[in-house]
From TrEMBL:
Residues 80-257 form the AB hydrolase-1 domain. This is AB hydrolase-1 domain-containing protein. SUPFAM superfamilies: alpha/beta-Hydrolases. InterPro entries: AB_hydrolase_1 (IPR000073), AB_hydrolase_fold (IPR029058), FrsA_esterase (IPR050261). Belongs to the AB hydrolase superfamily. FUS2 hydrolase family. It comes from the Bacteria. Keywords: Hydrolase, Signal. Residues 1-24 form the signal peptide. Pfam families: Abhydrolase_6.
Length: 323
């Protein structure tokens, strides 16, 4: 066997082992180091976050994998809890890995934020059973899925509260797609230190192969958003894109209206079309100059203590672009 063949075999074996470990629910990330170099400039560190899981056989404690990124210095730094989405194909959940969107994270760190990225149960490096199943498209249980996702984020906030570099009174939840939905769900529990939420294209139930832009039971999601909004005590930036193939703007506007009517406060921005499907815009490096100014304009006065609430508003903004 040639050296090249041996190397390919070793790489294939390592990937197979990672897949097996991820599905088994190991709390140890197993990406081969040569494929997953540590971002030393952001002091990247892999940590284990304990959380209490509630099941039919009672409560038990398990760990979820998270990654922290820090600016230089000792802090304390305001914290961003960054949440990943849910792949359309359930078999791809393990591919989330540790959700290392380094260019996006680097922008947050350059702004002076510490960032922690938890991998929720059933995904990537955390693995184990999937806790966020919504059930059937005809009658989905969004509230239950949100409640389960929120538990992972709440445990992450509690863990981060023990880190000396973190300003425990300045926590911002940021998430994309199912991660945006999870962030809204977690905010409804009013966790200690939370000051804002940034929701990038958040929701559940989208299926472009079925009806592009028209998710499952949008009226049920509106009720869920109202439920979240009724107990959310911080401002929320809702950032969506006109050509989102999962959640069309007209649908999102009904969700935002329900959120506001129930007492939630926030701002809805709908960007012009981005590429073929604007749903994943946040994860595209080329989109950073589009969403970053909105992010800064929203969070800076909140972090600085100059703004604690928003006048509810909705508008289209941004500039058309493509990846």
């Amino acid at each position: 066997m040639s050296n090249k063949t041996k190397a390919a075999a070793v790489r294939a074996l390592a990937q197979s082992l990672f897949t097996a470990i991820a599905f088994a629910g190991s709390a140890t990330p197993a990406w081969p180091s040569e494929l997953d170099p540590i971002a030393a400039d952001m002091h990247e560190t892999v940590v284990q976050v304990p959380m209490t899981e509630h099941g039919v056989f009672g409560e038990h404690t398990r760990d979820i994998v998270a990654t922290t990124y820090m600016p230089d210095g000792t802090g304390p730094f305001p914290l961003i809890v960054l949440s990943h989405g849910n792949p359309p194909n359930a078999r791809d959940r393990f591919k989330v890995g540790r959700y290392r969107k380094l260019e996006q994270i680097r922008e947050f760190v350059h702004l002076g934020f510490a960032v922690i990225v938890p991998i929720r149960r059933g995904y990537g490096a955390t693995g184990g059973s999937f806790a966020e199943d919504t059930g059937s498209c005809k009658n989905p249980d969004f509230e239950s899925a949100g409640r389960e996702a929120a538990q992972d984020l709440l445990a992450t906030i509690e863990f981060a509260d023990t880190l000396p570099q973190i300003d425990r009174n300045k926590v911002i939840l940021v998430g994309q797609s199912a991660g945006g939905f999870a962030s809204l769900a977690a905010a409804s529990y009013a966790p200690k230190g939370l000051i804002a939420v940034v929701n990038f294209s958040g929701g559940r139930g989208g299926d472009p192969s079925r009806h592009p832009g028209q998710p499952c039971a949008p009226e049920q999601m509106a009720k869920t958003m109202a439920h979240f909004g009724s107990t959310t005590q911080v401002p929320v930036l809702w950032h969506y894109v006109e050509n989102d193939q999962y959640f069309a703007p007209e649908v999102v506007k009904t969700w935002f209206s329900a959120f506001e009517s129930a007492g939630g406060h926030g701002e809805l921005i709908v960007e012009p079309p981005f590429g073929r499907d604007g749903h994943g815009m946040f994860a595209v490096d080329a989109s950073i100059p589009i969403w970053l100014p909105h992010f800064q304009q929203f969070v800076t006065p909140i972090v600085d203590g100059k703004q604690t609430a928003l006048v509810p508003s909705s508008h289209a903004d941004g500039a058309a672009a493509s990846p």
